[in-house]
């Protein structure tokens, strides 16, 4: 990518259990030391992803999702888009984010429709999303403001590290596609005559190794893919802005 520069360890922020973040329901699994942890440490000291000019990167280490704990989630986001975000956005909850994604996916919704889906408590979420400049009214319906103005994440990259048990790793990597624009397995090497590369390609999963050129998924998935994509959008901004 001509406008991108290779990332050095100083060019991204790592967010993990050591920081004690709790915004919008963000929590982490406790560190599990071992060969896969060491593989991830080497990756973070010599990262294989690029950050386009004008963007920043935040790396989440084993964040808790309803689907489990991906080893790493790399959020590359456009800092310019957040310059005008209202401070009230820092108060959004996980449920507020779920409501925002629903309106994005469904289209303009009436109060009655949202209450039927989320119960009467959705009223507070609507108030916060309105104050934060995420939703707006259009007649009697709530609608998302232009996506380009409220969603800053350009890439959300999930990484699963495996020393062995690659079948399990591929299954986990596929699971991560529910929120990520690209999902990778990180392995130390690919043995001769291994079917890993072919199987990963068939599943739309990329492969990063320490001894092989990166193999990217054939196509990136459009964002946001789910409300978890929105969560990472919020978490990356808050982590970088020191909002918690």
Question: What do you see in this structure?
Answer:
The protein is of the alpha/beta class and 244 residues long. 32% of the residues lie in helices and 22% in strands. It has helices at residues 35-45, 94-106, 111-118, 122-131, 147-150, 166-175, 196-203, 227-241; strands at 4-6, 12-15, 50-52, 55-61, 72-78, 109-110, 135-138, 141-144, 153-161, 182-187, 206-209. It has a six-stranded mixed beta sheet with strand order 2-4-5-9-10-11. It has a three-stranded antiparallel beta sheet with strand order 6-8-7. It has a two-stranded antiparallel sheet with strand order 1-3. Helix 2 (94-106) crosses helix 4 and helix 2 (94-106) crosses helix 8. The longest helix has 15 residues, at 227-241. The model is unreliable at 1-10 (pLDDT under 50).
**How many strands, which pairing sense, and closed or not: the largest β-sheet?**
6 strands, mixed
Summed over residues and divided by their number, the pLDDT gives a mean of 89
Helix/sheet category: alpha/beta
Q: Element order, helices and strands? A: EEHEEEHEHHEEHEHEHEH
Strand order of the largest sheet: 2-4-5-9-10-11
- End-to-end separation: 33 Å
Question: In which range does the helix fraction lie?
Answer: 25-40%
How much of the sequence is in beta strands?
Answer: 15-25%
Low-pLDDT segments: 1-10
Number of helices: 8
């Amino acid at each position: 990518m001509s406008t991108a520069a290779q990332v050095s360890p100083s060019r991204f922020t790592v967010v993990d259990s050591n920081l004690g973040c709790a915004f919008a329901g963000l929590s982490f699994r406790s560190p599990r030391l071992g060969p896969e942890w060491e593989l991830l440490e080497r990756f973070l000291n010599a990262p294989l992803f690029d950050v386009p000019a004008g963007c920043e990167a935040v790396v989440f280490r084993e964040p808790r999702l309803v689907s489990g704990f991906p080893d790493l989630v790399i959020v590359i986001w456009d800092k310019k888009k957040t310059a005008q975000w209202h401070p009230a956005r820092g108060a959004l909850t996980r449920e507020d984010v779920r409501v925002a994604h629903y309106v994005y996916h469904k289209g303009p919704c009436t109060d009655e429709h949202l209450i039927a889906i989320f119960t009467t408590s959705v009223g507070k979420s609507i108030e916060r999303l309105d104050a934060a400049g995420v939703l707006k009214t259009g007649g009697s319906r709530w609608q998302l403001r232009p996506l380009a103005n409220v969603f800053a994440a350009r890439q959300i990259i999930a990484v699963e590290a495996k020393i062995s048990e690659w079948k399990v790793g591929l299954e986990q990597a596929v699971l991560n596609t529910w929120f990520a624009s690209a999902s990778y397995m990180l392995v130390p090497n690919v043995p001769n005559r291994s079917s890993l590369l072919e199987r990963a390609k068939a599943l739309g999963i990329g492969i990063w190794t320490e001894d092989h050129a990166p193999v990217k998924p054939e196509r990136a998935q459009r964002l946001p893919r789910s409300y978890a994509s929105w969560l990472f959008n919020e978490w990356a901004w808050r982590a970088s802005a020191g909002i918690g």
